[in-house]
Amino acid sequence: MYLSYPGVLSPDRVSQLRHLKSIAQGPNHEAAKAQLQLGSHVFEVKDKSSGLFAFTLVDGSYMIRLGAGKSKQLPMAYVQVSSQLLSHKGPMEIESELRDLLRQLGEVHAPKVSRVDLFLDFACDLSMEGWNREAWVTRACAVNQYAEDKTFTGWTIGAGGALMARLYHKLLECKKSGKEYLLDLWARAGWDQEMPVWRLEFQFKREVLVQLDLDTLGSVMENRAGLWSYATTEWLRLCLPTEADNTRSRWPVHPLWMAVSSVDWGVQGGPLLRSYQALRAPSLSWLGARTLSAYASIGAITGITDFDAAALEAKKHAYDVLGKQNGGGLSGVGDEQFFREKVEALTRLYNTRMNPALPPAPEPYQHNEYERQSRG
């Protein structure tokens, strides 16, 4: 979900963000201090932004692009809401909390929807490459299919357009990206944890939403069923090609498409995440699994079979690498300080907490009255 908020940044916030952006553009140990706390969110202030937006703030919940000018054509804020947050709370509740955050930056008004993605996750052992491109009857021009290492991963229809569809192997993507939270949601919805899970997703950009007279988030939420129906019956259909009939619009609809197009958007969707943190950090269990693998690898190489001894050996090699990365002591800081700087850099990236602030810059040296007089 992408929302655009009209409004104006306060002058004090513009000055603060410019200062933080300049810090982000500095050396790594200083860039770690380029953070901004709004409520419970600790945002990374990026060293660069995009397009006409001057500043970019990122955490696990939002990517917020901010305009520093007073142009009426450019919104004060353009916000991308993370899919994981949308798996925890409803869009209307999220928007209300987001607007409260943005009020801390300046004057802000009700948002317009810049883009919304509607999707359906379903478990199915049907071969999704069991048809060719002509089976897709669509208003779009581009139809593409994808595979990785001989495994079929999905289709895209209308890539780059105002309306785009994707049918892709979501379970495979989750295993690669580490989105383990979806596996739990699927299991709670009845997934057997074995059958492939696919996602059918439609991306509606603002151009289409305006044509359909859907400008606000409330209007989009009220018309999800209509958007889904338009996408799956008028804009795109998966059909069973009939050789005896060259008129594709008369081809029968594929049974899979009959099922996905008939989803009832008037009922509550799947279960939501019970807990959520606005972080971009890997889980401790994920890190623990990789640490264990590293210990076991060291044991296999060195012949160490005791866990504690393998951990000590790993620590020794990690410390050796730390010293090398620190330039063998030639960087001007000790290894312990260098390690603290690495931790602070990841703290900023993971949005876990605010790092200690930079010390104030020393004031320019001024000669005292005696020195000025003694020098004439």
Keywords:
about 40% helix, 3 domains, alpha+beta, about 375 residues, 14 helices, two-stranded antiparallel sheet
What does this entry look like structurally?
Residues 354-376 are annotated as: Disordered. Residues 366-376 have a biased composition (Basic and acidic residues). It comes from Acidovorax kalamii. This is Replication initiation factor. It contains 14 helices and 15 strands. By secondary structure, the chain is an alpha+beta fold. The chain folds into 3 domains: 1-110; 113-275, no CATH class; 284-350, no CATH class. The strands form 3 sheets. Strands 3-4-5-6-7-1-9-14-13-12-11 form an 11-stranded antiparallel beta sheet. Strands 2-8 form a two-stranded antiparallel sheet. It has a two-stranded antiparallel sheet with strand order 10-15. Strand 5 (55-58) and strand 6 (62-66) form a beta hairpin. It is globular. The chain starts with a strand and ends with a helix. The mean pLDDT is 88.
Secondary structure topology:
Elements: E1 2-5, E2 7-9, H1 11-24, H2 28-31, E3 35-38, E4 41-45, E5 55-58, E6 62-66, E7 77-81, H3 83-86, H4 91-103, E8 106-108, E9 112-123, E10 136-138, E11 143-148, E12 151-157, E13 163-169, H5 170-177, H6 181-188, E14 197-205, H7 206-211, H8 217-222, H9 224-235, E15 236-238, H10 255-261, H11 284-302, H12 307-325, H13 335-350, H14 369-374
Antiparallel strand pairs: 1-7, 1-9, 2-8, 3-4, 4-5, 5-6, 6-7, 9-14, 10-15, 11-12, 12-13, 13-14
Helix pairs in contact: 11-12
